[in-house]
Each structure stands twice: as C-alpha cells, then as structure tokens.
Amino acid sequence: MRSERAYVVELYEKLDAERARVEDRYQEALRGTGTSLVERDVAVRAQARELKRLGVADHGLCFGRLDAVDGERRYIGRIGLFDEADDYRPLLVDWRAPVARPFYTATGASPEGMRRRRQLHSRGREITGYTEEVLGRPDGEAAGDAALLAAVNAPRGEGMRDIVATIQAEQDRIIRLDHPGVLVIEGGPGTGKTVVALHRVAYLLYTHRERIERSGVLVVGPNPAFLNHIGRVLPSLGESDVVFATTGDLVPGLHVTAEDRPEAAEVKGSLQVLDVLRAAIADRQRLPEEPRHIELEDVVVRLDAPTAEWARQEARDSGLPHNEARAVFLEIVTYVLTERAIGRIGKGWLTREDTEAWENVRADLLAELAEHPDFAAAVEELWPVLTPQQLLADLYSSPDRLLAVGAEALYRSDGHAWTVSDVPLLDELVDLLGEVKKPRSNAEEAAETEYAAGVLEILQTERHDLMDDEDHLLAQDLLHAADLAERFVEHDTRDVAERAAADRDWTYRHVVVDEAQELSEMDWRVLMRRCPSRSFTVVGDLAQRRSPAGAATWGAVLDRYVPGRWADRELTVNYRTPSEIMELAAAVLAGFAPDVTPPESVRSCGVRPWRRQVSRAEFARCISEFTESESQREGTSIVIGPPDVPGAVVPSDTKGLEFDAVLLVEPARVLTGNAQGAADLYVALTRATQRLGILHEEPLPDLLAGSEVTIETAVVRQ
Ligand SMILES: Nc1ncnc2c1ncn2[C@@H]1O[C@H](COP(=O)(O)OP(=O)(O)OP(=O)(O)O)[C@@H](O)[C@H]1O
C-alpha cells in the first residue's frame, strides 16, 4: 500500500506540473500578441482542449496496475502521463491504449502475458486500498468482481458515471471493436449498452482523433432527460467535442410542442410519406383558373393557364428543388409575357430583325414586370417560395390539401404544433424545396473572405488538413480564399460541437444512436444524411420498442443503407437491476416476447420487490410516504405510472434512466394503456438498481401475479 500510494502521489505531482505548464501556455495564447485572430483562435482551442484533458483526472487518476510475466509493470489510468526526462517513459497508460487492454480482458485461463492485475481503490486523490488477481494460476482469485460489485451497488447520483475502472471483457471487446461502419450494440435493459457506446466514442476519439475531431461526433437520445443523464460520461473521460441531440433537435431552431396520434406517427415514420411530401409540393405549383391580367404602362399582358403549364413543366423537368426551380418558371413566364407585349407594342414599326430596338423594349418590360405587384402576386400564387415549415403547416391544417395528397390522417387544427415525427419531414423538405437565397452584403462577403484567407494561410503553413478525408481536398488545392469563406464563416471561437449543433448541413464523422429501436425509417434517413461516411454506433433493445414506426429488426432499417456491412454485438449481463427485481421483469418479458432471453443480473441485493394494494384515493398518501422515506436515504428515486397519477412519470419518459428506488403505480393500467403497454411495463420494472415497490388498486396483471415470483405484501401502516 505504501509503495502504491507513493507512486500515485508522484503521478499527481506530475499532473499538477503539467497543468501549470498548459495553463501558462493557454494564458499566453489568449493574449495572442503578434498573431492573427485566426492563429489565436486555433492556439486557444488547442490549449483549452489539453487543459480539459488534464482536468478530468483530478479523481481516480490511476485505477489499476498490470504486471507482465516478463516483469514489466504498467499503471493504468484515465489519461496517459510520460516522463520526458527519461525518454518519454510511460508513467501512466491511458485506459484506451492497446497496452492497457489486458487490464480488462486477461483472465485466469487466458492471462495474455500478464501475471497480476491490481485494482486500486481511491477516494479523491488518495489510494484507500486495492484488490488483486493473480493471473495464469488455477488458484488465482477473481478479485475483479469486488470492484465491479462496489460500482454497481453504489447509490446513484446525478447522472451516469464512467466505468473505466471496471469495464468487463465482453464490453471491452465492443468498445475496441475495429469496425468502421455501422455497429449495433444489442442487449436487455441494464446491460451497459449506453455506457459502452459512450466509452466506444471516447476510444474512437483517442484512436482516430485527427480524423474524427474535425467533423465531430453526434449522440442522439430519446429525450432531454436522457441526454442529461448521460451527458457527463464523455466530459469525465476528457471528451467534450460531442453534440448531444434528441431526434427533435435535428432541425436547428425547431421547437417540438405536441405529440402525434399513433396513426399519424406511423404515416410520418414510413418512407411512403416521401410521396406525400412530393405531392404536397406539386400541389402548390398551380395553374390559374382564370387568366391574370397585368396592366403595364403601354400594354396589358395576360398570364394564362397554357403559359403557366409550359413554364411549370419546364421548371419541374429541370430537376431542381422547388424554390430553385422557381427561377425557371419565372424565366419562361417572363419570356412569354414580354414576347407577347413586344409584339403588341411594336405592331407596325418593330420587327425582330431590329434586334437592338427589340431588346431595348424587352429590357424596359422586364424592369416593369420585376416591379409590378400584380405580376409578383401572380407568380407567388402559381409557384410560391416555400419554407419547409410553411408547406407542412399549410398541409396539415387543410383537409382539402391533405385529401389532394391522400394523407387525411395527418390533419391537425394547428399546423405549427410540431411533433417529433415532423422533424424528418421538415429535414427532407429542406432538400426538396431547396434554398431561398438571401442576398449577402458586399461588406459581409469581404469580411468572410478575409477571415478565410487567414485560415488558408494557416492550413498551408502548418499543414493542418482541416478538410474531410472524403473531400480529398488539401489546402494547397484551394486557390481562392473566397472558396473557403463558405466553410469558415464562423468568426467566433465556437468549437466543432457548437458549430455542428447550429448547422443543419453539418455532417458528422461518427453518430451514436441510443434507444435506436424507436426510430422510424424517416428518422434513419435524417441520420444517414448527417453521416455520409456511415460510421455509426447503434444502441438498442427491440424488446423495449414502443413506437409503432420503430424498427422490427435491425436488418429492416440498416440493409437499405449498408447492405450486409453492419455488425452486431450482444451484451448479456445486467449491471443495473438486481436478480430479485429482474425475475419479475423476466416474467413480463416471457409473456410478451417469449423468444427473447432476459439478461442475467450480475448481483442480487437481498431485498425483494414489495407490493401494496390500496384504494385509488390512498395513492397520493402512499406516494408521498414513499418519496419521504426515500429522501432519507442516499441515492435517487422515482414514481412511475399511468399519465393520470399525480406525481408519476410515464414509463416512456424513463427509458434509458435508472434510479435506486422505483415505485410503480397501477401496473395493470400501464399494461393496457396503449398498444405497447407490455414494453412500457418491462421498461418500468427494469429502472431500479436497489428497491422496487408496486402500488395498485386493480388486481396485478396476470404477467406479474401469475408468475412464479412471490411478491412480499407490505404491511399497510394504519
Ligand atoms: N462494467 C461496468 N462497471 C460498472 N457499472 C456498469 C458497468 N457496465 C454497466 N454498468 C452500469 O450499469 C447501468 C446500466 O447501464 P446502461 O444504462 O448503459 O444500460 P443499458 O443497456 O443502456 O440499459 P437500458 O436498455 O435500460 O437503457 C449503469 O449504471 C452503468 O453505469
């Protein structure tokens, strides 16, 4: 113990010295004397990142030691530290480094050249003890379990924690899997799918930092509470250039305020809705029922149906998105109208051979038309400029428009009451409608070009290739700073994550999708667009699916994009739910998905779930008793139940979350509340890490009552 403590004290001294040095460099970069604004930004960001990396190691810097058979000793920790004075000898090995791997995977039977594994336990900066495993000897004890059990038994605090010290071998194999494409991590509740996916991101960033960091990583989760729950894991591993978003956030600036009826969600989630969107756009490209007369100074011109039809056909045939094709429509309509007008104005004195005079008259007419309100109104009516929001809101709130495109199920009175299933549709429409170009001022353009010139210079001098690999575009290939201006319009010091989150057209290098079983076909299209390199970690459990538009099988959603090129790995051990509670959940699972094997709990907690049957009038009192008694204990608690129980959270909002204690109210109504009631009940039953209580008035559902599981009946207090 004495020597381990002394070693770790030295490591912290080293860490502090390093931090002081980086802090100095950071301050220097902030002052940025003599450098350009761009150079300063780059330097400040680099030093800030290094400071963040060193900052994560304040607690539990070193958590393990590996002794190799050949006598080599490696200390394993949250970051790597080296002794510069001794030829960069590693003092501490980053947990992600290849040489750290046996710490997680070596076993008594397969020691991987190791003799001993020590797990160091610490409080703050102090080593409080260690457990040790002797590898490669039949009598070697498996002591790793002690650290794991301590970790999984510990009361939960605010959000998920990293598991670097106790990653299990089956998890490590997934974290380090060398598969650049789509990897599906499957497994029952509590098997660590989420936490493993996040550690995989940290691993990928460590291993391919240059390549990944430029375009960043996106983590998609089901709701803000879940993102909040998992939000600390990556920063605690020193990785903060990651964007977290719900599917509802994928169109920047949109606020989801409503929920769809299941029928509407199903229509919006399926790929058939693409036909609805195309038809809705076509429906807005109209022909005038009566000709429009536009009074110009010398002549009245007529915009009639045949003219509009020709222009509409040409515009459609151009293959351009709607808003961009408007220019084609406008050009043809204008051409026809001006030709007719010239014919009339020039009758008797102007011939086509007199090109100059003809063009002069045309120029006057063009100028006049461009300013004419009746002409503008006519064009706007026949080929309006459309934003995705406006198009969809107009469609949803008009029974006639919906009827015209065969999507009556989508009606809602407030067209703008956005739901999460509208997001992929809006995103699709951005491409189908195309851009409405807003003019940029000369001054803005000049400033952007100047900034880009600075970036270009740095790219060339420092040879930082900031471009995507796929672009095959090196800085030297770029001749004009103006070309770069488009990509570097941000003059501020926002990092990749911030810029990416605000930019709908940003493409990420890697995307993690959690609770992926809930995503519709349309959601997948949005995500695939965000990651052209198709590098995904997909996390899900088909048995927990509740969305009617969600995935029935992984192949059904993935084969369309990466046929035969996606890998899947399964996790089988439940680290969250103790066996006493899991038995109950497994009975429910057996009822609604008999083919699915429930995960096996890694521990039991010695406390059986309890139940209490009371009248509904007593629910409020019992719930407050539960919250009161839980507030006296360390850890977290929640009440889960149907939507009409005051103080209860509906099961779908607890997906991916966990609590020390759960009180489940009226499971019978959770089960029958909607078509996915059994999955909801399964989710609710698998949230507790220690204690589960059930409060009910109605008899327990057969799935629970009829199982072999005994549920202790709590003594009702008088
Ligand atoms: N190796 C480990 N060491 C310590 N704790 C672990 C380990 N693996 C998983 N856990 C813990 O188990 C709990 C469940 O993990 P996680 O939430 O990632 O599971 P999940 O499979 O995503 O569950 P769900 O499907 O219910 O969302 C978390 O508290 C996590 O920290």
Automatic annotation (TrEMBL):
PANTHER family: DNA 3'-5' HELICASE, UVRD / RECB / PCRA DNA HELICASE FAMILY MEMBER. GO terms for biological process: recombinational repair. Keywords: ATP-binding, Helicase, Hydrolase, Nucleotide-binding. ATP binds at residues 187-194. It holds the Pfam family Viral_helicase1. This is DUF2075 domain-containing protein. Transmembrane segments: none annotated. GO terms for molecular function: 3'-5' DNA helicase activity; ATP binding; DNA binding; hydrolase activity. GO terms for cellular component: cytosol. Residues 166-578 form the UvrD-like helicase ATP-binding domain.
